[in-house]
């Protein structure tokens, strides 16, 4: 009997897909759900998959792998799609594809399946990532085949008593994980309409935020955030804490029209409090410690990196090469950034680092104009010279910057 491994979110389409795949292909369907920090959507997910007809349901905690293998490299690379979107959805897809392929091998299945429709980016990310990892794998996308409208899908589920509570209750299409939430459809499809309050679940409306600002001091060690306000924390917990704090101050809402890889412009709402704060802080620290030309190069590559990830090319030599580039710089991205959160805004108000190239003695207007000397020393500083000094300052160990 044919076996199909299905990426199961617990939403309407993938719930219907369990039954549809079994009926259409006479196949055994094995559901796979990854815990990527999406929270309450995971409740009863295994029971629901089995109740609908999956022969087995794997629920895997992949949060740590998501943080270490995907979120941190994207943060180090400064990857914001079209300068704004931190790519919670896009970054999760290669990880999902990898796990589907692994479980298909383990279960002796020759096909994987996902619930993506034919107009979005996620179908391409999953298809391309899976095929990059295993050329022999067959990928089935039921929602591209069954030709049912949203209403017909609901009717299909109703007729078979398929329970999909979360998706049925919401007027939007959403995707959520540790790195943020993506919201589409419904009234949001009118790009002129302001998003209604019920779109947001992680961030408070600015008018309801505290009247006093909050300060966050984020520490980085080698490009990795290690704590906030003097408290060291594992990155996973730090992301959750920052979501809570920044979300309470309304920080992290993004309303944008973006260019999908399939050639459609779409209106997207994102909520990503921790991602917005961490990208702002990381970028600021780089500005303090990187010489001018390296900072420019880093910024150029950040856009390339974001495009790659967005376009489903995570498993590519180009992405690996940019990771390697970012890896040579990150040891210097050590220090602290102070941010002020207030009614939906997040501003950097301070930065410091043992690798700072900022020299108050050179920058000051207090010491009179000794332009010749200042110009020469400033010129040397801005290029990260002298190299000797920079090399001595860099941390030792296998990851150290070697000049
Ligand atoms: N436009 C975003 C992306 O391509 C988000 C997609 C969100 N998916 C969803 N089911 N709402 O990464």
Would you spell out the secondary-structure blueprint of this structure?
Elements: E1 3-7, H1 12-25, E2 28-35, H2 45-52, E3 56-61, H3 63-77, H4 88-107, E4 111-113, H5 122-133, E5 138-140, H6 142-145, H7 150-159, H8 165-169, E6 173-177, E7 180-184, E8 214-221, E9 224-228, E10 231-232, H9 235-248, E11 253-259, E12 265-271, H10 273-289, H11 292-310, H12 317-329, E13 335-342, E14 345-352, H13 360-363, H14 371-382, H15 387-393
Parallel strand pairs: 1-2, 1-4, 2-3, 4-5
Antiparallel strand pairs: 6-7, 7-12, 8-9, 8-13, 9-10, 11-12, 13-14
Helix pairs in contact: 1-7, 3-4, 4-5, 9-10, 11-12
Bound molecules: arginine.
Question: Any descriptors?
Answer:
elongated; binds arginine; Argininosuccinate synthetase, chain A, domain 2; Rossmann fold; 43% helix; 403 residues; 3 domains; five-stranded antiparallel beta sheet; alpha/beta; five-stranded parallel beta sheet; 15 helices
């Amino acid at each position: 009997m044919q076996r199909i491994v299905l990426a199961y979110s617990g939403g309407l389409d993938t719930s219907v897909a369990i039954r549809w795949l079994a009926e259409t292909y006479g196949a055994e369907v094995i559901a796979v759900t990854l815990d990527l920090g999406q929270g309450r959507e995971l409740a009863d997910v295994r029971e629901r998959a089995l109740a609908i007809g999956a022969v087995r349901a794997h629920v895997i905690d992949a949060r740590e792998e998501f943080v270490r293998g995907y979120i941190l490299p994207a943060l180090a690379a400064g990857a914001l799609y079209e300068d704004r979107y931190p790519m919670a959805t896009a970054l999760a897809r290669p990880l999902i594809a990898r796990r589907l392929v692994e479980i298909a091998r383990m279960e002796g299945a020759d096909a994987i399946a996902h619930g993506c429709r034919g107009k979005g980016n996620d179908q391409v990310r999953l298809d391309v990532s899976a095929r990059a990892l295993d050329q022999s794998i067959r990928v089935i996308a039921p929602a591209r085949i069954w030709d049912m409208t949203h209403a017909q899908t609901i009717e299909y589920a109703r007729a078979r008593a398929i329970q999909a509570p979360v998706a049925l209750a919401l007027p939007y299409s959403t995707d959520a994980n540790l790195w943020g939430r993506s919201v589409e459809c419904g009234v949001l499809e009118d790009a002129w309409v302001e998003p209604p309050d019920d779109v947001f679940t992680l961030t408070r409306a600015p008018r309801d935020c505290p009247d006093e600002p909050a300060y966050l001091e984020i520490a980085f060690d080698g490009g990795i955030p290690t704590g906030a306000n003097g408290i060291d924390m594992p990155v996973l917990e730090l992301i959750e804490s920052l979501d809570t704090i920044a979300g309470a101050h309304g920080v992290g809402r993004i309303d944008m029209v973006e260019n999908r890889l399939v050639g459609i412009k779409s209106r997207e709402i994102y909520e990503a409090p921790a991602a917005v704060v961490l990208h702002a802080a990381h970028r600021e620290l780089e500005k303090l410690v990187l010489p001018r030309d390296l900072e420019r190069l880093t910024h150029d590559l950040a856009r390339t990196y974001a495009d790659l990830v967005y376009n489903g090319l995570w498993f590519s030599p180009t992405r690996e090469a940019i990771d390697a580039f970012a890896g040579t710089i990150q040891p210097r991205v050590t220090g602290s950034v102070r941010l002020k959160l207030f009614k939906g805004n997040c501003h950097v108000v301070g930065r410091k680092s043992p690798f700072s190239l900022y020299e108050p003695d050179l920058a000051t207007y207090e010491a009179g104009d000794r332009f010749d000397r200042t110009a020469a020393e400033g010129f040397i500083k801005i290029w990260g010279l002298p190299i000797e000094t920079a090399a001595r300052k860099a941390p030792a160990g296998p990851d150290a910057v070697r000049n």
